[in-house]
Each structure stands twice: as structure tokens, then as C-alpha cells.
């Protein structure tokens, strides 16, 4: 039975009325339930408030008695205090501690053994204690403070009772009676317990309540809940203030499950509404359903008769208008019956529906006729369905016709085949075109696939060497990262960099460089194992990824590669030689950090180049630690420059004949915040890598000039200050501009230049800067003379004021005749050119005497003084210390 609109509408109306009535009833029931919950919670909070107040008041009354005794007597003895405190704590077990604090400083405390560390403690050392004691003093009565943690890890509430004396009729604050009321005793007195991390009313309440308590004594500084959780205060709770001596607590309560929980009788009400709906709706549905079913049956019968007539008419019209031809074949007589459309399809004239065999075959394409006759014979003999396509040759062209039919047995037991035929010429044309398009598309797809393969190959390979590129290396590492940890093996990375490749590239051209790269790639492919990945990752850098290396394999592979790379390579008659440096990093098993392998191999490569190139080095934890330490020092150098941690120390220089102070050399020192004063050997090489040596030179020079100004102002005569200038700073085009604003007397400032700067090369910037420096009245000293290759021509060109003989030559002169002769020759060369000499590294008086005999002008070294900070050098100069004394 189906439902009709006449049965559904009354049912829906009745259902709607029942739903509205049920909803109204349930809403009212829920409101009543929530109102009852809020009333229960309010009642519970009132009871808890009264119990807490009673508990706190009883304790404070007992403590106030002790305060009154002190106020009456003016003080209290230790024994009396111990007796009274013990009696109070016995009558009030909730009090854990009682202390006396004259002038706010604890002097006595009970129990004394457990709280002996309290003696001498100030009550105002914390904000919460200070505010509570101030409230007690201001109101002249007890004040409850914050929650404290006791030595045994339990907690209690701090209580302060002010004690006032009236020596002259005016109240004067003597101090406080301080006590701690046990937290659990307060909660136990109010029947409170803690359940699952939140405050809750103890058993026996009509409605279990989630409870929170916080201190609101200071509205501007309301703290977190000390009982329950802060969340209780943010869930629409019932709030109740508990007014305590000198403070106020706030209670927040919500029923367990919240105010929005469902009433207990909600399911019963729902079932009652459902039962009422069933009682009313089911009879309505059944009654109106039966009535509608009868009407539908009558209507359906009339509609089917009309549809049958309409279908017959549509079929006749469709056959007349369509391109289908209808035919029939008598299987016994082979007679055919065609309609006019069949004749038209075959290019024939209608013959009253019965074409003969010759007429049927006249226009069929000769190639299709045998198959058409075979299909017809199979249908006649085996009663198979008739289905065939053949071509008809017409003057206008060839037509494709499709025939389908089925065997039918009439009421007279005669068997016929009845079917349809239609022109499929356009379908055949479209099919042929689609086949050709498919073949073309397949050919294009094959070309695209080939192009895709070429693109992928080019994307993963270096076009010059046909090695894998960085993308292929990254893909191989990513595949290793995704491997099963249980089957993970060791992985090694060899990072290679060609030595002297840039010289070949610059001198013979990029074509020669490319030839060397191809040669290097062939060497690597030849020497690498069948499972190894060789990649070029840029410029003259290569990587070999070796999975599961065996002991000794990596060393042997590196040695073979280095040996073959050393062999000369012929390029258009030029013998090109280059080498290779190799850094090796190994990842061990599943713990290998493959992302760090390339970084570690690069660190090892850096070490190999640092040790002389054309070699291999393994990455190690010590090497990483060294690199990390250098990075840390580099960062600290940059930070130290920003914070002004670098300064100048000064080593005095003395006249070789009179041994009087004739100058100082300014030396860089680092006031390290952790390691103290550091000398340049601890940081200068790293500063050179950071390209900040010129900055440090500038700092030393500015500091030296400032100190010189201070010495001069103090009446000290420092004839000359020498400062070191690096090669990079000497090549700075802005050097002269930075010096033009400095204040000094000509000849008072001297630049020490390293001998290696002047290797007989023509550097226009250096030459111009030296000329400008001399023009500004700054002397030039050639530092570390005798260790480089400066020629006499360079000395004549530079015209330094002094030559500074390196300590390596000075140190052995007392026992080595060869070095002694060399120092004498340097002194004689300087004297012949009008250039003075300074000997550094003078460690003993024997060295000083011999250098004076050899004719050296100025002496500097530990035999006279070590480098000193500015203040100590000032003391030395003030004392006019001389070695002659």
C-alpha cells in the first residue's frame, strides 16, 4: 500500500502538533531542572561558606587570646609562649604553626624543631604576606593571608593577628602573632574533598557539586583557584563570597556535569511523546492510505490503455520518419518482404514488397556478398540471430548497411526472420577517422614519452659529463631516507674538489676546463663500484655515494682516484696537471643522518685542502667539534666587536743605547666575557676568515690614539705608538679618508706593515695609500723583516722609517753565528739606506747587549716588559723605568 497526499497531510499535521506540545513540555521540564540545580548549588555553597567561616573564626579567636595576653603584659616569655601555643594547638588541631613577630620579624615559633628556620624571617618579604599583614595592621584585627607550602610539603593558610600596646594611651604596633591553619583541616571541616583534580562537595549532598575557591581580598590582584580549578569560574557558576577575618574568599560551584546536562526524566518524556504519536498517527495513515489505494488502481488502468494506444501510434510514426528499413524473410520459401525504405537503402525501385534473390544481390559489393550469404544460410539452418554489415555499390558511391534480425515463430508455426536495416556509412567514416586519430595519438604519445624520458634524463644528469647531478643525488639520498630501518646499511659520501682547476680554466680557457671535467668524470666512473652513484654537483665538485662500504674500500677508492687524477692530461699539445682533494663521511646503519652526510663530507674536504690538497680526509667528531668551535668563536668575535670587547695593550720599546722608553707597539687584545683576556693567536686566524681584521686594526688605532691623548694630558711623554695594519686594510680605497680626521703629531704614529705585502708586485692602491700615509706624517715600519722576499728595490721604493727584525732571527743570535751575521747584515742594510732597525723578541739582557753591539736602534721584548694595558703602561712611564738602573 502506497501513501498518498490525502493520508500524508493529516498525518503530518497531527505529528507537528504532538512535536510542538512535546517540545514545549521538555523545554519547561529542562528549565525547572536547571532552576532546581542552581538552588541546590546555592544551598550547598551557603553551607560550605558557614562551615569555612566557623572553622577560620574559631582558630582566629584562639590566636587573638594569645595576642591579647601579649598586649596586656607588653611581652611574653619563651616558656609562657610555648605553653600557650601548645595549648592553643591542642584545642585547635587545624593550627600547624604559631610564631611571634615583634616589629614584623619572627622571634619565636612553635613547634620550634620543625620551624626553626623561621627565626629571623621578615613577614613582609613576599607581596602576599606584606599585603595581609598590612590589612591586619590597618583594621586592627586578624587577617588571613595566602596559601603557604610547609616544610613537609603540605599547605596551610597564613593568618596575622596584630598586637598593639598602649604605653601612653595611644595604640602602638608591637608586632604580629602569625599562624598557619592547615589547608586540609579547613576543607575537612567543610566536608570538601578533591576528586579527579577538581574541587567537589563530599558525599551526602543532594546534588554533587564541582567547587572552586579563590582569594579575592585584593580585587586588583585576584589569584588562581587554590581549591578546584580556574575552569570552574568560567563555566557560569553560582558565586558566593566568604567574608573572613581581614580577607574575602570566593566560592564558585557548578553541578557535576554542568547546568546544561539533560534532566534524568528526559528519556521517559520522549518515550511518552512517541507513544502518543503512534496512537494518533497510525490509524490516520491506514485509513487514508486504503482510500487512496483504490483511487490509484482505477486511475492506473485508464492510463495504461491510453499509453498502449499512444505507443502504437508513435511506433508507426517513428518507422515512417526514421531511416530504418523493416524486412522479413520466410525461412522455408526464402521469400523476402521489404518496406520502401529497404529499397531506398539498396538503391532499388519498390516492387510491392517482395524483391527476388537476383534483385537483392545486384548492388552488394562483390567482396561482401559471400559473407552475407553465409550469415543468411546459418540463420536458416541453425536458427541463429541474423546480424551482418555489407556495402552496397551505388552510382553516388558506396553505402554501408547494417542488418539485425531474430527468428520468430508465428501462430501458424511458420518461422520467419524479422529485422531492421539502417545506413551506417557515416558511422563507418567516423570510426575510420577515429582509428586514424588513435594511431596518430599513439604515435604522438610515443614521441612525448621519448621527450619526457629525455627531459627526465637531462633533469637528473649533468649535460657536460653525463654524470648524475644534484637532483639525482638528492633523490638517491631521499630514497635511502625512506628505507626500512631494519634493513638499513652503512652509507658513505665522498666529496671531491679538483685542485688547480681554476688555473687551467683561466689560462687555457673554458674549453680546456670542460675537457678536464670530462676526464675527471671518466676517472670517477671507471674507479667507482657498480652500485655507487657518481654525481657532479657544480663547478669542479663531484660526489660519490657508496652504499654499504666495506673496511678499506673508501681509502682504496680515494687513493686510486687521487693517483689517476695526478696523471697529466694532454689538451691540444698542452700537458695539463691537476689533483683532487677528497672529503669522506660515513653514515652508520639506521642511525645515519643522511641529510648531514654531505655537510660532514664538505667539512672533511675543507680539512683535506687545509692540510695541503691532493689527499683525502675522513670526517670525525673531533673535526666537527673543531669546526663548531671555530664557528662559535667567529660569532663571538662579531658580537665582541659590537659590544666593544676588543682593546689595545702596549709593549714598550727602548733605546738600545740609553735603555729609555722611546715608544710602544699597540697590540690587539680581546676582553672575552668568559675566558678573560685573549691574545691574537686565539682568534686572529678566525677573524681573517671573517674578513674583520681591518675592523680590528681600526679599533686598535682609535684606542691607541685615545690612550695617547690621555697620557699626554697626564704629562706622560710617549714618543711614538706603532700599530699593525693588515694587507686587506692597506688595499682599502677609503683608508686615507678614514685617517684624515685623526688627531696626532707627525712622527707620533707609526704603521707596521707585514713584509709579505711587498713581494715586488705592482699594486696601485697599496702604492697610493702608502704615499698618502707618509704624507699625513705617519711613519712606516716593515714588520717581520727577514722572513719574506722583499728586495732592495722595494725598500728604496717604499722608504720605510724602520725595519723590524723578526724574533725568529733575534732569538738564536747569542749562540748561532749564522743568524748573528744575518742580523748584522740587516742592520747594515738599514743603516746604509738611512733606515732604523727594531729588534723584537728580546728575551734576555744578553740579547740586548749583543744587539746594541751590532748597532740595533730599538729593542722590544720580555727582557724589558711584557705587553701591558694602558693604565699599567702609564705607571711604567711615570716611574721612568730604565733597564740601565
Automatic annotation (TrEMBL):
SMART domains: CHASE, EAL, GGDEF. PROSITE patterns: CHASE, EAL, GGDEF. Residues 102-252 form the CHASE domain. Keywords: Membrane, Transmembrane, Transmembrane helix. It holds the Pfam family GGDEF. GO terms for molecular function: catalytic activity. It comes from the Bacteria. The chain crosses the membrane at residues 269-291. The keyword ATP-binding does not apply. The keyword Transmembrane applies. Residues 630-881 form the EAL domain. Residues 489-621 form the GGDEF domain. NCBIfam families: GGDEF. This is EAL domain-containing protein. It comes from Rhizobium quercicola. The lineage of its organism: Bacteria, Pseudomonadati, Pseudomonadota, Alphaproteobacteria, Hyphomicrobiales.
Amino acid at each position: 500500500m502506497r501513501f498518498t497526499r490525502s493520508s500524508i497531510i493529516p498525518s503530518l499535521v497531527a505529528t507537528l502538533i504532538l512535536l510542538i506540545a512535546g517540545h514545549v513540555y521538555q523545554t519547561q521540564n529542562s528549565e525547572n531542572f536547571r532552576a532546581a540545580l542552581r538552588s541546590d548549588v546555592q544551598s550547598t555553597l551557603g553551607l560550605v561558606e558557614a562551615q569555612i567561616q566557623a572553622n577560620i573564626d574559631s582558630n582566629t579567636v584562639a590566636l587573638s587570646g594569645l595576642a591579647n595576653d601579649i598586649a596586656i603584659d607588653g611581652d611574653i616569655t619563651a616558656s609562657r609562649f610555648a605553653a600557650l601555643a601548645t595549648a592553643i594547638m591542642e584545642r585547635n588541631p587545624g593550627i600547624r604553626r604559631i610564631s611571634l613577630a615583634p616589629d614584623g620579624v619572627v622571634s619565636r615559633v612553635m613547634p620550634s624543631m620543625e620551624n626553626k628556620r623561621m627565626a629571623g624571617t621578615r613577614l613582609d618579604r613576599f607581596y602576599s604576606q606584606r599585603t595581609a599583614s598590612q590589612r591586619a595592621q590597618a583594621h586592627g584585627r586578624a587577617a588571613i593571608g595566602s596559601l603557604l607550602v610547609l616544610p613537609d610539603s603540605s599547605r596551610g593558610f597564613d593568618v596575622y593577628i596584630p598586637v598593639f600596646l598602649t604605653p601612653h594611651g595611644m595604640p602602638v604596633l608591637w608586632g604580629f602573632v602569625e599562624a598557619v591553619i592547615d589547608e586540609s583541616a579547613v576543607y575537612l571541616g567543610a566536608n570538601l574533598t578533591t576528586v579527579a583534580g577538581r574541587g567537589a562537595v563530599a558525599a551526602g549532598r543532594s546534588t554533587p557539586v564541582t567547587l572552586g575557591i579563590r582569594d579575592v581580598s585584593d580585587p586588583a590582584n585576584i589569584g588562581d583557584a587554590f581549591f578546584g580549578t580556574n575552569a570552574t569560574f568560567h563555566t557560569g557558576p553560582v558565586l558566593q563570597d566568604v567574608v573572613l577575618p581581614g580577607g574575602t574568599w570566593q566560592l564558585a560551584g557548578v553541578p557535576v556535569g554542568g547546568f546544561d546536562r539533560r534532566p534524568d526524566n528526559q528519556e521517559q518524556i520522549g518515550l511518552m511523546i512517541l507513544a502518543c504519536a503512534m496512537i494518533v498517527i497510525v490509524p490516520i495513515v491506514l485509513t487514508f492510505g486504503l482510500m487512496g489505494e483504490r483511487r490509484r488502481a482505477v486511475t492506473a488502468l485508464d492510463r495504461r490503455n491510453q499509453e498502449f494506444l499512444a505507443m502504437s501510434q508513435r511506433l508507426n510514426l517513428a518507422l515512417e520518419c526514421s531511416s530504418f528499413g523493416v524486412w522479413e524473410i520466410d525461412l522455408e520459401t526464402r521469400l523476402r518482404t521489404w518496406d520502401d525504405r529497404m529499397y531506398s537503402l539498396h538503391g532499388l525501385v519498390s516492387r510491392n514488397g517482395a524483391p527476388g534473390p537476383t534483385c537483392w544481390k545486384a548492388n552488394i559489393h562483390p567482396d561482401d556478398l559471400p559473407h552475407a550469404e553465409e550469415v543468411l544460410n546459418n540463420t536458416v539452418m541453425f536458427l541463429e540471430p541474423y546480424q551482418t554489415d555489407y556495402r552496397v555499390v551505388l552510382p553516388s558511391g558506396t553505402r554501408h548497411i547494417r542488418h539485425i534480425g531474430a527468428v520468430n515463430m508465428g501462430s501458424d508455426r511458420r518461422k520467419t526472420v524479422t529485422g531492421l536495416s539502417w545506413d551506417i556509412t557515416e558511422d563507418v567514416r567516423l570510426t575510420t577517422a577515429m582509428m586514424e586519430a588513435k594511431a596518430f595519438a599513439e604515435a604522438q604519445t610515443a614521441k612525448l614519452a621519448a621527450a619526457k624520458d629525455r627531459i627526465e634524463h637531462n633533469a637528473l644528469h649533468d649535460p657536460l659529463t653525463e654524470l648524475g647531478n644534484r637532483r639525482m643525488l638528492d633523490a638517491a639520498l631521499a630514497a635511502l631516507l625512506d628505507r626500512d630501518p631494519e634493513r638499513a646499511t652503512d652509507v658513505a659520501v665522498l666529496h671531491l674538489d679538483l685542485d688547480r682547476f681554476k688555473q687551467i680554466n683561466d689560462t687555457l680557457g673554458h674549453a680546456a676546463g670542460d675537457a678536464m671535467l670530462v676526464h675527471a668524470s671518466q676517472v670517477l666512473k671507471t674507479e667507482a663500484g657498480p652500485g655507487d652513484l657518481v654525481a657532479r654537483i657544480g663547478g669542479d665538485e663531484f660526489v660519490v655515494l657508496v652504499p654499504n662500504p666495506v673496511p678499506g674500500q673508501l681509502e682504496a677508492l680515494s687513493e686510486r682516484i687521487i693517483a689517476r687524477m695526478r696523471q697529466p692530461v694532454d689538451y691540444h699539445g698542452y700537458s695539463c696537471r691537476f689533483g683532487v682533494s677528497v672529503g669522506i663521511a660515513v653514515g652508520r646503519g639506521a642511525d645515519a643522518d643522511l641529510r648531514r652526510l654531505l655537510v660532514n663530507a664538505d667539512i672533511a674536504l675543507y680539512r683535506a685542502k687545509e692540510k695541503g690538497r691532493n689527499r683525502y680526509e675522513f670526517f670525525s667528531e673531533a673535526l666537527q667539534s673543531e669546526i663548531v668551535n671555530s664557528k662559535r668563536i667567529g660569532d663571538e668575535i662579531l658580537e665582541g666587536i659590537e659590544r666593544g670587547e676588543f682593546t689595545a695593550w702596549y709593549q714598550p720599546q727602548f733605546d738600545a743605547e740609553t735603555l729609555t722608553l722611546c715608544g710602544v707597539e699597540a697590540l690587539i687584545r680581546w676582553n672575552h666575557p668568559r675566558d678573560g683576556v685573549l691574545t691574537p693567536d686565539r682568534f686572529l686566524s678566525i677573524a681573517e676568515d671573517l674578513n674583520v681584521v681591518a675592523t680590528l686594526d681600526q679599533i686598535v688605532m682609535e684606542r691607541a690614539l685615545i690612550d695617547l691623548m690621555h697620557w699626554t694630558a697626564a704629562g706622560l711623554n710617549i714618543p711614538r705608538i706603532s700599530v699593525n695594519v693588515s694587507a686587506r686594510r692597506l688595499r682599502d680605497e677609503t683608508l686615507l679618508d678614514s685617517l684624515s680626521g685623526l688627531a696626532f703629531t707627525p712622527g707620533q704614529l707609526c704603521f707596521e706593515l707585514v713584509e709579505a705585502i711587498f713581494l715586488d708586485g705592482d699594486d696601485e692602491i697599496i702604492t697610493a695609500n702608502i704615499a698618502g700615509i707618509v704624507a699625513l706624517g705617519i711613519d712606516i715600519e716593515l714588520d717581520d723583516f727577514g722572513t719574506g722576499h722583499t728586495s732592495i728595490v722595494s725598500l728604496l721604493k717604499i722608504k720605510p722609517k724602520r725595519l723590524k727584525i723578526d724574533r725568529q732571527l733575534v732569538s738564536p743570535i747569542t749562540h748561532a753565528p749564522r743568524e748573528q751575521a744575518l742580523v748584522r747584515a740587516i742592520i747594515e742594510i738599514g743603516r746604509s739606506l738611512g733606515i732604523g732597525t727594531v729588534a723584537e723578541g728580546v728575551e734576555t739582557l744578553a740579547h740586548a747587549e749583543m744587539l746594541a753591539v751590532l748597532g740595533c736602534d730599538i729593542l722590544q721584548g720580555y727582557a724589558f716588559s711584557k705587553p701591558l694595558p694602558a693604565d699599567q703602561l702609564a705607571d711604567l712611564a711615570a716611574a721612568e723605568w730604565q733597564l740601565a738602573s
